[in-house]
Amino acid sequence: HAMALVHLGTGDSFEAEQKATRAMYLDPTDAEHVELVSRIYKERGRTDLAVTALEQTLPRVDAKRSAPMLTELGRLLQSQREYNDARDKYVAAMKADTSYTPTLRSFAGLLKLTKQYAPAVSLYTRAVAQEPKDIDSLVGLSESLREIGNAESAAKVARDALAITSSRADARRAFVRAGLRCTDPATRAAAAK
User: Fold this and answer.
1) pTM score of the predicted model
2) Which of 28, 55, 89, 97 has the highest CB neighbour number within 10 Å of its CB?
3) Do residues 178 and 145 make contact, with C-beta atoms less than 8 angstroms apart?
4) What does 17-39 look like in DSSP terms, one character per residue?
């Protein structure tokens, strides 16, 4: 495992893959080995192999460890546009650990991507409640609120994200888009700047 990380750090993904795969087969119950193999496959552009590695290992890991793996599997499937399978993995991850914020954020992102904005708002709200300074969740919440017609709340959430970090272009864009739809003239003026 350590040698695989060293090779990965030096950019030798082929040797990293061999070392990580060997470690995974020596101890297939160690989720860290599988996650490393999956990460290497993903970096090499072999999402299909990353999915296979995670799917083969999931039955052997404990429930608490399965939430991050299921979430990563959902993200990989989502990147391959297998949205129904991704949704199923996110739901399974939420059942394994309801407090794992990356699952909430990723699932909400999938719902937003598939234009299911109201459930996305619900999941983003839960994610923000758990991690109030999570910019990605705040921006996603703002965009989803705007899409369901709640521009005032969307602008407030985007403004909260900007208060945390003003350097994020997506947070600024979310504020501008929501702010221009607000009924409050001050918010509209701030968004137009």
Assistant:
1) 0.78
2) 89
3) yes
4) HHHHHHHHHH-TT-HHHHHHHHH
